[in-house]
Amino acid sequence: MAILTINAGSSSVKFTLFLGDDDAPRASGIVERIGLEGTRLQYRRADGKTIVSPVVVADADRAVEVILSALVHPEHGGIGGVREIEAVGHRVVHGGERLTRPVVVDAEVRAYLESIVPLAPLHNPHHLRGIAACERHIPHAVQVAVFDTAFHATLPRHAFLYGIPPAFYAEDGVRRYGFHGISHKYVAAEAARFLGRAPAGLRLVTCHLGNGCSLTAVRDGRSVDTSMGFTPLEGVLMGTRSGDIDPAAVLYLMERRGFSTAAMNDLLNRQSGLLGLAGVGSNDVRDVLSAARNGNAQAELAVEMFCYRIRKTIGAYAAVLGGLDAVVFTAGIGENSPEIRRRITAGLEFLGLFLDAERNEAAASGPRAIHAAKSPVALLVIPTNEELEIVRETRRALAARTGA
Ligand code: ADP
Which pTM value belongs to this model? Predict the structure, then answer.
């Protein structure tokens, strides 16, 4: 039995193939630069060897075809034939209010996903195309949708509502949905396992710090608050997103500068954050840190703002949870930048967070503890694995379907 995971985006389709109950992928890769010059397939075999080949792909449908032919390739492929794929687990950013757990995609689910496209116009249309392509090319397989918003469905009302009249929630769906849920759920479960504790009773703050950044307060294995909101723009500072900003400042700028909605959206989502603040032409924290080390004061300020907002949110979530058992770092920055982890945690000793400098700096890649022996609160680095979480959810959805 093989399960394929698919993450279809605006210009790429990522895939991972899993066999049986094996948590190690049999093959993985990406078709990238779809619709641009230099479209290519990167295909990674189980032995780690990566093959890169130029491909002619204009859309998700053709991308899926290309992926399937790579997967059945007699030399590099992971399966003998497409028929071996029993299910496809699709990463879908937005499940709206209704889809709060992984679901088998049927006409009703598809129609609901179509109806909530306005909530996630940059993501859901691409996911729907990915689903349609798999339905066409792997018609016998069960298509399962796994949602980034689902983990946050447990937010209490007082945490997910905004302070505007309730009609805008009831009629327009304006509320905090939260994102990165697949990652937050995975690292929260792995953190409990690492600590040798049951999720029940555990109070965690999970920090997903990649290009997009969000923090989640997790109690008893459930999300109780999260920093991203109606869209992924809210919360802490990110690579190119502003994070929190007074909405009145947005209105003021639109009026004063005559910005259109699209221009303002571009400014807040793509020209802000580390990119816009540091002004070093990069949203990569490594470039901003290196400019700061070379004396660039604006880059230093951007790093300080980045860490400050995360520190502030950890403090807020300590209040939400009534104390902390562990803070977990994950994703590109969280897993790989000791300097950012050090700067975030500096000053949080009053909450019982004591970093161990040596453990923090040590070159390592797996799940690890980076707190001092005397630290009452654990500080963990847990590499995220969204594909593994998607395949686990897909297996669960299949089992539920067959009543196994
Ligand atoms: P995405 O949110 O796109 O999935 P990732 O989780 O891969 O992103 O994170 C990408 C970011 O991680 C990069 O922009 C960079 O800032 C940071 N990053 C990646 N590798 C390192 C590293 N070795 N040291 C510091 N930061 C890193």
Answer: 0.96
What are 343-377's pLDDT values in tens digits? Answer: 999 999 999 999 999 999 999 889 999 999 999 99
Q: Look at residue 332 in the predicted model and tell me its pLDDT.
A: 96
C-alpha torsion sign, points 158, 237, 90, 9:
positive
Distance, C-alpha 6 to centroid of its chain: 14
CA of 228 to the centre of ligand 1 (A): 18
3 state DSSP class of 379? strand
Q: Is the CB of 383 under 6 A from ligand 1?
A: no
Contact 207, 334 (CB under 8 A): yes
From first CA to last CA, the distance across the chain in angstroms is 15
* Residue 288 Cα: closest atom of ligand 1: 16
Q: How far apart are CA 379 and CA 328, in angstroms?
A: 6
| Integer Cα distance of 333 and 208 in angstroms | 8
Distance CA 307, CA 314 (A): 11
Q: What is the dihedral of CA 93, 97, 102, 104, to 10 degrees?
A: -100
Q: State the Cα–Cα distance between residues 126 and 42, nearest whole angstrom.
A: 20
DSSP output for 229-257 = -SSTTSSS--SS---S--HHHHHHHHHHH
Question: CB of 25 closer than 6 A to ligand 1?
Answer: no
CA of 174 to the centre of ligand 1 (A): 30
Our answer on whether the CB atom of 285 is closer than 6 Å to any ligand 1 atom is yes
- Domain architecture of the chain: domains with CATH: 2-147 (3.30.420.40), 196-386 (3.30.420.40)
- Residue 268's identity, in one-letter code, is L
| Catalytic annotation present for 148 | yes
> Among residues 204, 165, 166, which one has the least CA distance to residue 185?
204
| Residue 36 confidence (pLDDT) above 80 | yes
Counting ligand 1 atoms within 8 A of each CB, the residue from 148, 236, 285, 289 with the most, and so the one to mutate, is 285
Tokens 């699209």 identify what position? 262
